[in-house]
Write a structure and sequence with these properties.
Elements (H helix, E strand, L loop, with lengths): L1 H13 L3 H17 L8 H16 L7 H15 L15 H25 L3 H9 L1
Length: 133
Amino acid sequence: MRPFKEHFKKAERIIKKASQARDTARQAEDKIEKNKGVFGKVKHQLSLFVQLVKDYAAGNYREIPRHSIVAVVAALIYVIVPIDAIPDFVPGIGLLDDLSVITFVINRVNKDLVEYEIWKNTPVEQNESEAAN
């Protein structure tokens, strides 16, 4: 997991700049789509990761602990970077380390991810009235 830990510092910087956060989310979204067979079992959670980062960058959703959004961004960075513990171009196993990192982060931020998904699926009017209270 050492290579993954290195992405935390980069994630800390990225979440401070909305354009970089959005760009990271888009790059991850593209790679996930190209490799949807590998990421099949976690595709829904990965989609939530991408949406969460976009909403966080836009300032629409900030109800997540800093350590959780940093972990999500770090996982997306890990997915994007082709040279990691097992280089992505190694046939058959190149994305397995990516999958293990994603699974680790899903387990780590699951509660926050569920709360985000509830918020995401709540009608806008209800979110606005709750924010006003």
